[in-house]
Amino acid sequence: MNIKILVANFIFIFLINHACTNTSPNNNYIKNDYPIEDTASQEKIKENIQIREIDKKYLIGKYNPETDSNFVKIPSKYCIYRTEYIHREVYDALLELLDYANSQGIKLKIVSAVRNYDTQLYLWNSRVSPNYDIYTIKNVLKYLAMPGTSRHHWGTDVDFNSTALQYYNSYEGITIYEWLCENAPKFGFFQVYTSNRNTGYNVEKWHWSYKKLAIDFQENYKNKIFCPDLGKFRGSEFCGELDIFNNFVFEINSEFL
User: Fold this and answer.
1) C-alpha separations of 217 from 189, 213, 222, 228 in Å
2) Distance between CA atoms of 145 and 248, rounded to whole angstroms?
3) H or E segment to which residue 4 belongs
4) Are 230 and 149 in contact (CB under 8 A)?
5) Pairwise CA distance, residues 160 & 150, whole Å
6) Could you give the CA distance from residue 73 to residue 222 in angstroms, rounded to a whole number?
7) Mean pLDDT for the chain?
8) CB-CB neighbours of 120 under 10 Å
9) Which backbone phi and psi does 154 adopt, to 5 degrees?
10) Per-residue pLDDT tens over the stretch 206-222
11) CA–CA separation, 54 vs 156, rounded Å?
């Protein structure tokens, strides 16, 4: 009789322990069902991101920022040369970045923000002489975008302090650039034309883009803009031969891709 009781007790204890042991793995499985480091899960999240529709005129700069409510004037104290505009969805983040820089003793100001099609065309014609050829165009494209292809049309991009190469070789320029690399991403801005690219514009340490909104513009641009949409100007006939969109518009920092 005593042996039966002992056996029964042993079986009871075994079943209790077994049940507790099985509970823990089930809880862990539920908790780690979709771990954050799971690449497949991250890709699924990316697929669900909605890209807003953007009118073609904003993609190629065919608007007037002074009268269009999508753009707002940047206070003159932040600008170096002229009145500058920025997309209204970028405004707060940009001013926060500029104010934070000032609080850190960094003199950060804007050389250029919004440039619509007409402004880009003016700059383009000032660089491209009437007797141009494809080699002239290639040379200009080292640092200047064709009208209709500049990210400055979107109101998401800003040039800081100077567009002169020698400035960023100076002590001040090096300090500014290093500060931007460390701090601009905290406010959503990333350098567009970095050194880790195969083609396209030369490295631009001054050119930074507000990623959150720029992504929407990029995706719309890919699907809506083709060479004829750029219009006729000096060198526009080389748009296809130079593969402007793949080699320049989308040859950018992988952070944006």
Assistant:
1) 15, 7, 9, 19
2) 8
3) helix 2-31
4) yes
5) 16
6) 28
7) 87
8) 22
9) -80, -20
10) 999 999 999 999 999 99
11) 13
* Amino acid at position 94, single letter: L
Backbone angles phi, psi at 14, to 5 degrees: -60, -45
Please tell me the predicted confidence (pLDDT) of residue 245: 98
| Among candidate residues 203, 199, 190, the one with its CA nearest the CA of residue 257 | 190
Cα angle value 152/52/60 (rounded, 5°): 30
Confidence band of 48 (pLDDT split at 50, 70, 90) = low
205 torsion bin: left (phi>0), alpha (psi -120 to 50), beta (else): alpha
Strands 84-87 and 71-74: antiparallel
167 or 24, which is more confident?
Answer: 167
